[in-house]
Design goal:
The chain is α+β, with helices and mostly antiparallel strands. It has five helices and eight strands. 28% of the residues are buried.
């Protein structure tokens, strides 16, 4: 399966130099991207692509099918984060709203970062730190992954 993105997404993807542009001005998620990413990227990529097989009501409570645009954006987010040294493999889940969720929990279980990748509204995240509640963040929306990378590498 080849994941494609529209020309509007090229700037996001090309920054990571992981896509090729075709004659119809679409871009393809290339094999080259996997060769430079962290070892956890490939299993996450496969799992996220598998979410496209989920039909409506996949959770038997009325969940929406996972949108291709959210999968494409999630693959970009995962790839970009996989290039940052020190970021561990996230838990990857489908969300009932048709998006892709990413979650990291620290070993001491006192910190958690939850991310929802929504192609139409950007990346939303919430960060919880039981040891330092002043750093807690709820429902932040961004298109820049720098804050997320800083939280994950404890440089925040």
């Amino acid at each position: 399966m080849v994941i494609t993105a529209t020309a509007d997404d090229i700037t996001t993807f090309s920054r990571a130099k992981c896509l090729t542009t075709s004659a119809d001005n679409s871009v393809e998620w290339g094999r080259e991207s996997r060769e430079r990413s962290a070892e956890w990227y490939r299993p996450c990529e496969e799992k996220v692509i598998g979410f496209l097989q989920l039909s409506a009501n996949w959770d038997s409570y009325g969940a929406f099918p996972i949108r291709e645009e959210s999968v494409e954006r999630a693959l970009t987010v995962l790839y970009d984060l996989s290039l940052v040294k020190g970021i561990r493999r996230p838990r990857v889940v489908p969300t009932v709203s048709g998006n892709v969720g990413l979650s990291w929990e620290w070993d001491d279980c006192n910190q958690e970062l939850d991310v929802e990748v929504d192609a139409s509204r950007g990346v939303r995240y919430s960060y919880y730190n039981e040891n330092d509640p002043d750093k807690n963040l709820e429902e932040i929306t961004t298109y820049d992954l720098m804050d997320i990378a800083q939280i994950l590498t404890d440089k925040w």
